[in-house]
Amino acid sequence: MNFHRVSHLNHQDVRITELTVHSYEMGRYLAEVDFDGRRGFIVDDNNKPQQFQSINALKDALHSCTVHRAYLVHQSAYDEMCGASEKVDNTLKVPLVL
Questions:
Q1: What is the pLDDT of residues 16-36, one digit of tens each?
Q2: Cβ proximity of 20 and 31 under 8 Å
């Protein structure tokens, strides 16, 4: 499994093909990066997925590199309500401007 660190990505010569920001748990975000043909999550010093408190915190962390495409992805829990029809993919993927 590939992973990336902010310290390796945040340089002027780094070109990120795609950044996917996964939204979960009330204002916590995980970042998945496609860089140099390797897709993986940004991890912290303990090799655990690094959590960001806001989109702006992620923007600040990656302020020096170039991001070609960015998306915010959110999956709603509302499909788990009683009496709802069978589970369907309710993923919302919205383009982000960084």
A1: 999 999 998 778 999 999 999
A2: yes
6 and 61 in contact (C-beta within 8 Å)?
Answer: yes
The pTM for the full model equals: 0.85
**Residue 75, both tokens:** 């999956």
Q: pLDDT by residue (tens digit) across 52-64?
A: 999 999 999 999 9
Q: How far apart are alpha carbons 41 and 38 in whole angstroms?
A: 10
Token representation of residue 16: 């990120």
Tokens coding 42: 């940004």
DSSP summary character for residue 50: P
End-to-end CA distance of the chain: 26
The SS3 call for residue 43 is strand
